[in-house]
Each structure stands twice: as C-alpha cells, then as structure tokens.
C-alpha cells in the first residue's frame, strides 16, 4: 500500500505543505479559495483526503463524509488554466516529498501519484 511505502502520514503532510505554500502565492488559484491565504483548513482537508486515498486512516471520511469531489469543486471555475496551475504545484510538491524516499521506490511512487492527480484534475475540470 502506497501509504506504508512512503512511510506514513509525514509524507502527505509534506506534499500538502509544499503545495499550499505555492498556492498561497499563485495569482490564478488563490482567488478561488474561499478562505484566501488562510489555508489551514484547506491544508487539513487535502492532507486527510490524500492519505485516505492512498490507504491511510479514514479520518477524511469520518470528518467530511463521502468525498464527492466533483460536487465539492462545482462552486469553483476550473478550466484548463486552473487545472494546469494546480497540477504544476502538485507535481512539484510530489517531487519535493519523494526526494528523501529510497531509490528503489521513488520513481514508482512519483509515477503513480502524478498519474492519479493528473486524471483527478482533469475529472474536476468544469469549464
Ligand atoms: C483541478 C484543479 C483544482 C482546483 C482549482 C481546486 C480547488 C479547490 C478549492 C478552491 C477548494 C476549497 C478549499 C477548501 O478546502 O476550503 C478545494 C478543496 C478540495 N480539493 Fe481541490 N482543486 C483542484 C483539484 C483537486 C484534485 C485533483 C483533488 C484530489 C486529488 C482535490 C482535492 C480537494 C479536496 C479533498 C478538497 C476539500 C474537500 C472538502 O472536504 O471540502 N482538488 N479544491
């Protein structure tokens, strides 16, 4: 299970930390976020979602119910531009978080994680 391969929760904390540090300075994405540069809640939700998706604890669903990500993203205009900027920051965050993984797992984790977010981001595009 990827959650265990990457060493557990700290890996997902790192991905989301690097990702949201970039979003907080992104003039295209930041206006979409209802709480603006106060990203504490958004960081918490994304961290729990990603760790649950990859086989970690089900805290996300305990707190938020079924993810229903398309519905939850419906209020935000997500076109190719928003999708691409979101992915740019997420792929950079995945690269950063995987640097410290053992050589024998790094490339596979990167490939699986990047493939997943690339598909998911396209699925959430609504424009
Ligand atoms: C395609 C570009 C995307 C944009 C512009 C975008 C934007 C947003 C915004 C504005 C929010 C509200 C922030 C908040 O939680 O308060 C949000 C929430 C969230 N996003 Fe995205 N998102 C994108 C893609 C994705 C993808 C690909 C995933 C999953 C792989 C994802 C997972 C989530 C989750 C889990 C939440 C919190 C949902 C909740 O429990 O309320 N997002 N997103």
């Amino acid at each position: 299970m990827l959650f265990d391969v990457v060493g557990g929760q700290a890996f997902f904390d790192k991905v989301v930390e690097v990702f949201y540090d970039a979003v907080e300075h992104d003039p295209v994405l930041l206006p979409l976020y209802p709480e603006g540069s106060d990203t504490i809640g958004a960081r918490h939700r994304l961290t729990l979602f990603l760790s649950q998706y990859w086989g970690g604890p089900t805290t996300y669903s305990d707190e938020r119910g079924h993810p229903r990500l398309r519905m939850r993203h419906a209020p935000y205009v997500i076109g190719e531009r928003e999708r691409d900027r979101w992915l740019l920051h997420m792929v950079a965050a995945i690269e950063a978080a995987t640097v410290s993984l053992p050589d024998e797992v790094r490339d596979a984790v990167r490939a699986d994680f990047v493939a997943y977010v690339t598909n998911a981001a396209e699925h959430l595009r609504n424009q």
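The radius of gyration is 14 Å. The chain has one domain: 2-124.
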